[in-house]
Amino acid sequence: MDFEHARKSMVDCQLRPNAVTDYRILAAMSEIPRENFVPAAKKPLAYLDEDLPLDTIGARKMMEPMYLARLAQLAEIKSSDLVLHVACNTGYGTAVIAQFADSVMAIDDNEDFVEMANDALADLEVGNAAVLAGELKDGLAKEAPFDVIFVEGHVDELPETLFKQLKQDGRLVCVETENGVPSAVCYVKNAAGVSRRVAFNAVVPKLVAFEKQKTFTF
């Protein structure tokens, strides 16, 4: 399979027509080989415009390229930013963000994914990113505060822990349900508290770690 051609088609046919205008994101996703971050059997599917299952039961999926790009654009990542990438899966988004951020710390709760991510990043000589195993809701307090927290997936609710790890004027992006519709949102932390802005509709994989806890009444 001609992965280079598939990568160019992804950018030209999936990203550019869908409001991805940040040239840094387009350049990064033109260069980073997405096929390096998926299981061997799924490499021919690496550039499809849909979520890509990463395990046999489909519990974890790599986010569709277009939504990954639009969420990264929503975060307005600067070249001086320290980014926390939560639920990084096998590290593709980490590699992309590392191309235009100062540095990226990433976490995932699947140790196999963490190993695969670090191997892929090392093979590509991405020196400003590292992936650690950990509970997604905990973030990485020892590396905080962060300029940006990028949550790769749909969440029911966000823990206060993550907001505490944001710098002043820091941004957190994720997908939540707004009036029954999955939507990309951007939180901004400032002196007055945390503001929230809904940006666009986004159907992305749900993160079990951020599911709302069920309560029982008698």
Automatic annotation (TrEMBL):
Superkingdom: Bacteria
Gene3D superfamilies documented for this protein: Vaccinia Virus protein VP39
Ranges in coiled-coil conformation: none
InterPro entries per record: PCMT, SAM-dependent_MTases_sf
Pfam families membership: PCMT (PF01135)
Similarity comment: family membership: Belongs to the methyltransferase superfamily. L-isoaspartyl/D-aspartyl protein methyltransferase family.
The protein's name in its UniProt record: Protein-L-isoaspartate O-methyltransferase
High-level lineage: Bacteria, Pseudomonadati, Pseudomonadota, Alphaproteobacteria, Hyphomicrobiales
